[in-house]
Amino acid sequence: MSESVPEQEKELLVQLSSLRNRLSAYKRDRSNRLDPAKLEEFREETTTVIEQLLQVRNGELLDGDHVHNRCDDLMDEICQMISLCYLSIGKTRESPAVFAQVNAIMHCFDRLEEFGIYAEEFLEPYKNMLKDIHQILEVDERNGALSKPVMQISWHKFHRCENIYNKLLNTIHEVSPELLPIRNQLLRIRRQLLTVACRADFDADDIRPLQEELDDIDTKRVDGKFMADDGVSVPAGQAVLTTLMDQVFGFAHDLIIVTTPDFSPFLQAIRERLVEIKCHLERLELTQKWTMRQTDLYTYQHQLHDIVKLRYKGGDDEQPTDNDKVGQFVDDQGNVPEGQTCINFLLHKCYRMILMLINESVPVSEALTPIYNQLVSVKHCLLAVKKIGAPCTDEELYPYQMKLSSIERLRKDGKFYVGDAIPEGQALCVSTLEECYQLLDSLRESV
Fold first, then answer.
1. How far apart are CA 319 and CA 316, in angstroms?
2. Lowest mean pLDDT among 57-61, 217-221, 239-243, 244-248
3. What span, in angstroms and rounded, lies between the C-alpha atoms of 12 and 50?
4. Are 69 and 3 in contact (CB under 8 A)?
5. What is a single cellular component term in the Gene Ontology annotation (predicted)?
6. How far apart are CA 186 and CA 144, in angstroms?
7. pTM of the entire structure?
8. What are the C-alpha distances in Å from 149 to residues 59, 92, 104, 141, 207?
9. Is 364 domain-assigned?
10. Which domain, by its residues, includes 432?
11. Of 340, 359, 378, which residue sits at a domain end?
12. pLDDT tens for residues 230-248?
């Protein structure tokens, strides 16, 4: 919960608010491309304000005793917007761009921690992402690419992700290999429940077969325990499987509630909002390479954060904290309505989609994106022609040759210029162009 801002930070709050508003207006302007020089100005201004905040806080931005306030919220929003801008101009391997990736992973991990148990193969991509980000942060820290306070924020978020990852990994090692088939079956049912929950509409008949499958698994227990193949020994990991079993049973029951007239109108309003966000993100996935600017994702992230903030976080000076309600959505009457699983599944889905969209960012500047997209389209067409295997005449290949020649003519001294600037993404555009020529040559040789 964000507390009131201390008196000594109020002047910086005004500066952060002004910076956030200007940056927000700049990223929304689609009439002009993002200017690296302008972004550098925003980044330097942000660094200056954060360094001032560091001084006010006696050298520690995010120590264990610090009470989170509005300055922290604004600082996070500004760093996130700048980071997404860097992704938009193709600087994907620099620390400013990495901030958005760490942030996206952190929000996914917050949801993962709520569910608690996963298979190794599900966590593997996250492991690779964290390894990649760790290398970038280490290199940039050695080179002094970012100021100390900004690096401090990035490392803080990274270590938070790392801690959750290690915690999830530990639960995997607690389960005996003999019980892995049952664990994997339970995880599959949970994934299917998530798929159902993320639909715009579903009914109880979509869930009952999964409940029956859970009942079948439950019958395999003897005195509440899953036995080994010999029917005598009790393999390790009983607590993990029992917790997972109870969790999935609870999820299925909770989703049944969503299909009844008793489902809370308060939760239904949140659900409809999340389904709408998910639909927008799905459209971005389809049109990403043609229309999406990475900064577009900020709007959806912000909407998701607003929903997460609706959860009960604790009481105040007048009301004691009700620990049973912490982390739950509480309605206007102070009740915790059933059906929260659907909301949590949708939040997980939306945050994961945002992470995937960020990770699919290619190191190509917004200015070069139209050229890169054309090259990728030609490449896909040529690969499709090659896959068919039928001989091609020179006349059939001529349109592809003409398109590549028209793109080739845009280069000067081997580089793609936009005005006097040489945008990010030269190597990728040139290598894709060369791939297209190689495919074209191989198709000619097959005639």
1. 5
2. 57-61
3. 9
4. yes
5. nucleus
6. 47
7. 0.86
8. 9, 21, 20, 11, 49
9. no
10. 369-445
11. 359
12. 877 899 999 999 999 999 9
